[in-house]
Amino acid sequence: MTTDAEFEAAIAALQHWVGRERIVEDEIGLSSARRIAGMLDMDPASLKQGDALPPHWFTMFFPDIARQSDIGPDGHPEKGVFLPPIPLPRRMGAGRRVTISGALRIGEPAIKRAIVAQVAPKIGRTGRMAVLTMRHVIETRGEVIAVDEFDALYREAPPPGQASAVSPPQPAPANGIYADRVLLSSALVFRYSAVTWNAHRIHYDADYARQEEGYPAAVQNGGLTMQLVLDAALKRAPGRLTGFTARLTRPLWVGDTVTLCGAAPSGGRMACWAADKDGHLCAAMELEFAA
């Protein structure tokens, strides 16, 4: 077993990855957009070639497409294929900071510049961790339409037979002006994984999630949680979405019901969140709007 100092040295050795950039192309195809619409319970046929998409939908395009031989036992691409080879086995989304100035259009090619922004060690209550921050710059028609900084948390594996550690529960806010309930069915989570080309096994293989990663059930995809919170809030939007921040605080489980809430908009901002079946806060977001 390595010491904390050796672990920090191993993360320091990955600093040459910081600043590396990949370009991911996407044609923003009609069939892809319609699959997303169907997954979100919208009429797929309502989307036509040339239509502008909801501004936050860029997060569901530009997948990293690895060869099957490069897929690891957890369903992610092997370390070093696209992302730095962080020497910790468990990876989960943690949060993001997004600015939006435009929207993708169906049939108009676009690119994502995927830049390694930070690799930082962290030693906390649950053991050794590392935070990987990726900066995704979305461009189409020669313009930047969104910048997305996404944090992924890497952790140690729990000992065999021990439950995976989760953050202590905290109650969700009580000042919501709406409360939309959504069933996180296995079909919904699977379809989201399909449209985003995400093969992480904890989201669809409950036996793997329990036996290998110490979770009580298959784990809800954090990207889908943020998508649902945004969609619920935008039904009450005071203007055009120009950005948001998000923080995932506690896992949700496939098969549970999530409650999507938001406070009254104020000063072009709106606080939104997701609560689990026990009323615990699972995701907190703040949205920004322009008139």
From TrEMBL:
Keywords: Lyase. This is 3-methylfumaryl-CoA hydratase. SUPFAM superfamilies: Thioesterase/thiol ester dehydrase-isomerase. GO terms for molecular function: (3R)-hydroxyacyl-[acyl-carrier-protein] dehydratase activity. It is an enzyme of class 4 (lyase). Its EC number is 4.2.1.153. The lineage of its organism: Bacteria, Pseudomonadati, Pseudomonadota, Alphaproteobacteria, Acetobacterales. Signal peptide: none annotated.
